[in-house]
Amino acid sequence: MITTIVQFSLPQAMTVVEAKAVFLSTAGKYQSVDGLIRKYYLLSDDGLTAGGTYLWKSRAQAEAMFTDEWFDFVEGKYGCRPTVSYFASPVVVDNVSGVIEQG
User: Fold this and answer.
1) Total structural domains within the chain
2) pLDDT band for position 27 (50/70/90)?
3) Which end of the chain has fewer surrounding CB within 10 Å, N or C?
4) Those residues with Cβ within 8 angstroms of residue 65's Cβ, 6 or more apart along the chain or in another chain
5) Which residues span the domain enclosing 39?
6) How far apart are CA 79 and CA 40, in angstroms?
7) Coil, helix or strand for 80?
8) Apex CA 36: angle with CA 75 and CA 8, to 5°?
């Protein structure tokens, strides 16, 4: 499994209430993405940094998501270009299902 962390600096601070509304407006877009297991939307305490943490089945599926079109979409939505970092996730603990997965 692969985890990607996406971050971007917002041009102005956003409250959690504002962020929730914006994030909900894009959440459906991620429901049928091939290989995406889970996505968490992120907002820093000061409201100036946003992003997401994504858990993927494979690196290839993660890379397929982060196209030039996707970067342009994020920049258009939030006013800044994101960075994407990739991490191997060899073990995932899921306390909801009670499962420890090996990637």
Assistant:
1) 1
2) very high
3) C
4) 33, 36, 54
5) 2-102
6) 20
7) coil
8) 25
Q: Give whole-number Cα distances, 74 to 52, 59, 79, in Å.
A: 11, 20, 8
Q: What is the pLDDT of residue 103?
A: 79
| Residue 66 tokens, joined | 């982060």
CA–CA distance, 6 with 3 (Å, rounded to integer) = 10
Q: Which CATH number do you get for residue 66?
A: 3.30.70.100
Q: What is the pTM of this model?
A: 0.90
What is the three-class DSSP state of 86? strand
Whether 55 and 65 have beta carbons less than 8 Å apart is answered as no
Residue with tokens 């993927």: 56
| 16-27 vs 68-78: helix crossing angle, rounded to 10 | 150
